[in-house]
């Protein structure tokens, strides 16, 4: 049965709008809303809403939409001011109004519909509400008492971030959404500002906690602090004062809950989830929650089914927004890393920080601005960023696309065959700048599975030479690299599709494993033997012998696999290296053996051919490798001659908890590139050419390695060129394929327009 008596806790936009919608859909409902503050008490000044949210409001409640529409101030531009230079990007489309006015509109709508609004009144105890009402809607904000009272049921996870910020306002209407950077002697500060009326703007001042303290702002009262901010950003404000609304310096809290409902109680808005203000989504998400909740309660007669449907509908949307918000938040926390970028690239980087705005849609919004960024970056005219060449040591790559190493498990006794020729040859013909082999093992005992390829015999070397000759002869301009590795404790397992990481079914077929320490990969896995000093020397020589064969096989690049929990990675991670000798303990000691292998391989690898190293920049597990450690690893390998760091993550321990999402591993590469200056190869759910263009042009990576997209489409790079109308040298079609360089025509999808239309 649909709920008739509804309690709403919290009188912010989400709670008010939920109450109004539920009352409008059920005029006979008894709806009571409690808000402990006064009607006009509010946090912040202006609210930005998207066209998508406004469209939902328009369809659900035209009365509220009409009232909002009359109040909105609209603008299109974003201004980025850095080191005295302002760059403007247009075509973005914003709508904002005062938060107090928004509350007035929603309060008025609730009263007219008959909602019982009780301001300056604390809500009754939750147990009482749940017993007396059919439904309890908890819209009580980021510090939700409801969520706290039922923490065991909701499963909240709250992360406090490191930047300090304060909500302020100015009596001036900024002409655009404005980001301004101030480099003070204490550190970097930034202003986020936007108009919310014809004469007022929201202003948020943000900085790292240590900058806040060093600048003395932490020691000032609010009035003094506000005056100091107005002085720091005097140019942006035209010398005007800033005003406060009981503001205080805060740190942002990201709220995530395992569940959003408990019995007849449901969370909406900041009580359920938060998204950083830099993408302007708090009020938007709360209003959209209210819309979805009301719709689900209307569509599902049973309350429990309606609450499940509400969460199923909203959770993916919210998770996507939170990923974007976290990327934006982190960008501003790490802002000092980007200060020395060329000015237009800095602006582009800021605009695309959340990955919601990309190169392609920014080009549609403001082609002139985007073209100016490309020109500054060095893109030849008419050339997308992904097709600009890149030099990796002595190797010139025709574009920024890498076919990521992908284990094929198709070798026989370590010998690559026709499958590998077709697999790698097809992707070389498909236009990528660099094609990487799977991990090629340096010994029979170093294989992951019986189907893994090797370079420990001359027969294997000759088979690889057949493949490199094909690439160099039939796909001129494509480079091919080999990735050398040893499975370590993750070896002697079945083919991936037969049971990934599972031991071979016949115990007689399994071979003994070795590792940094005698720790099995997971329960049921074989326990490896800890490598002795003598065995370490043998394995170094196995890498050297494989590298010599790789050079004779005419590979253009050699990558040392120090990631994903294989042998060398096992030395680097504190979770897998428990040694008490010179190869264990501190990070410097754990680096010792991988660096020894790198050095001995570099000695025999031709000097004009680059070497790269793949690392796991985090173990995604407590006590494991951290992003800070990854910077140290990258510096160490670069100091020993690595031309680039291939930045992956995880797969080191079985109980990892990765934070999957679009381009989720790129921030680790970005950090390494920004803090070390070493070129990086980014991997991890980079799936579109728009992503590649965006990441390269923003300076977050130098090369992008894609795996699954190249399994789906061996000619991914050529198709990316065709879709962008690019025909230059960065994506040359093989002569036999040139006739297919335009997308084939499809059947007609439109219908003929009326030949004649008569007036009615």
Automatic annotation (TrEMBL):
Q: Which GO terms describe its molecular function?
A: FAD binding; FMN binding; NADP binding; NADPH dehydrogenase activity
* Segments of this protein annotated with the region Disordered: 727-760
Matching entries from InterPro entries are given as:
Aldolase_TIM, FAD-bd, FAD/NAD-bd_sf, OxRdtase_FMN_N, YqjM-like
Q: Which residues form the FAD-binding domain?
A: 128-322
Bilayer-crossing regions: none
* Positions of the NADH:flavin oxidoreductase/NADH oxidase N-terminal domain: 386-721
NCBIfam families attached here? Answer: PRK08255.1
What is the protein's name according to its record? Bifunctional salicylyl-CoA 5-hydroxylase/oxidoreductase
């Amino acid at each position: 049965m649909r709920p008739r008596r509804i309690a709403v806790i919290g009188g912010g936009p989400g709670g008010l709008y939920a109450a109004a919608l539920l009352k409008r859909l059920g005029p006979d409902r008894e709806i009571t809303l409690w808000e402990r503050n006064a009607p006009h008490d509010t946090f912040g000044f202006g609210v930005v809403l998207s066209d998508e949210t406004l469209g939902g409001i328009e369809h659900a409640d035209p009365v509220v939409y009409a009232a909002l529409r009359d109040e909105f101030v609209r603008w299109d531009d974003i201004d980025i001011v850095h080191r005295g230079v302002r760059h403007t990007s247009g075509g973005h489309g914003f709508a904002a109004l005062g938060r107090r006015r928004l509350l007035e509109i929603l309060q008025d709508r609730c009263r007219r519909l008959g909602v019982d609004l009780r301001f300056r009144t604390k809500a009754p105890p939750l147990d009482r509400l749940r017993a007396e009402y059919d439904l309890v809607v908890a819209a009580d904000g980021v510090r939700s008492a409801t969520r706290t009272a039922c923490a065991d049921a909701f499963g909240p996870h709250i992360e406090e971030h490191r930047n300090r910020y304060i909500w302020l306002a100015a009596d001036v209407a900024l002409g655009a959404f404005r980001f301004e950077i101030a480099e003070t002697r204490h550190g970097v500060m930034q202003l986020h500002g936007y108009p919310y009326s014809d004469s007022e703007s929201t202003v948020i001042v943000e900085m790292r906690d240590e900058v806040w303290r060093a600048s003395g702002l932490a020691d000032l009262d609010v009035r003094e602090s506000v005056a100091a901010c107005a002085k720091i950003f005097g140019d942006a404000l035209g010398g005007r004062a800033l005003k406060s609304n009981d503001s205080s310096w805060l740190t942002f809290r990201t709220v995530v809950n395992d569940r959003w409902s408990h019995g007849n109680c449901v969370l909406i808005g900041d009580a359920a989830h938060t998204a950083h203000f830099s993408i302007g989504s708090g009020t938007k998400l709360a209003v959209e929650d209210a819309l979805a909740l009301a719709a689900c309660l209307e569509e599902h007669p049973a309350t429990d089914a309606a609450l499940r449907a509400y969460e199923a509908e909203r959770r993916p949307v919210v998770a996507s927004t939170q990923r974007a918000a976290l990327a934006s938040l982190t960008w501003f926390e790490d802002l000092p890393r980007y200060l020395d970028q060329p000015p237009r690239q800095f602006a582009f980087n800021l605009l695309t920080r959340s990955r919601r705005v990309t190169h392609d849609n920014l080009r549609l919004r403001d082609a002139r601005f985007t073209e100016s960024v490309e020109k500054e970056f060095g893109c030849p005219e008419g050339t997308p960023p992904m097709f600009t060449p890149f030099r990796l040591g002595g190797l010139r790559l025709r574009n920024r696309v890498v076919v990521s190493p992908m284990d094929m498990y198709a070798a026989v006794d370590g010998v690559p065959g026709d499958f590998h020729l077709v697999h790698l040859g097809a992707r070389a013909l498909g236009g990528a700048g660099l094609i990487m082999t799977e991990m090629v093992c340096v010994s029979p005992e170093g294989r992951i599975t019986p189907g893994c390829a090797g370079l420990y015999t001359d027969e294997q070397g000759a088979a690889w030479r057949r493949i490199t000759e094909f690439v160099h002869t039939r796909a001129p301009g494509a480079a091919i690299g080999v990735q050398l590795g040893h499975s370590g404790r993750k070896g002697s397992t079945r083919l991936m599709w037969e049971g990934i990481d599972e031991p071979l079914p016949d115990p007689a077929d399994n071979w003994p494993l070795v590792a940094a320490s005698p720790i099995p990969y997971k329960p049921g896995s074989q326990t490896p033997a800890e490598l002795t000093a003598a065995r370490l020397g043998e394995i170094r020589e196995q890498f050297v012998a494989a590298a010599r064969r790789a050079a004779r096989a005419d590979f253009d690049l050699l990558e040392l696999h120090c990631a994903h929990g294989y042998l060398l990675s096992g030395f680097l991670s504190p979770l897998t290296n428990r040694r008490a000798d010179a190869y264990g303990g501190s990070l410097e000691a754990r680096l010792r053996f991988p660096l020894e292998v790198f050095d001995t391989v570099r000695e025999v690898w031709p000097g004009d051919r680059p070497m790269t190293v793949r690392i796991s920049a985090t173990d995604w597990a407590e006590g494991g490798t951290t992003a800070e450690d990854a910077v140290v690893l990258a510096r160490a390998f670069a100091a020993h001659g690595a031309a680039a760091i291939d930045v992956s993550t995880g797969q080191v321990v079985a109980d990892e908890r990765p934070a999957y999402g679009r381009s989720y591993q790129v921030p680790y590469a970005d950090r390494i590139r920004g803090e070390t200056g070493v070129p990086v190869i980014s991997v991890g759910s980079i799936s579109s050419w728009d992503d590649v263009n965006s990441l390269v042009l923003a300076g977050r990576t130098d090369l992008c390695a894609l795996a699954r997209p190249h399994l789906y489409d061996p000619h991914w790079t050529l198709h990316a060129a065709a879709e962008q109308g690019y025909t230059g040298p960065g994506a040359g079609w093989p002569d036999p394929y040139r006739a297919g360089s335009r997308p084939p025509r499809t059947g007609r999808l439109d219908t003929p327009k009326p030949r004649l239309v008569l007036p009615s």
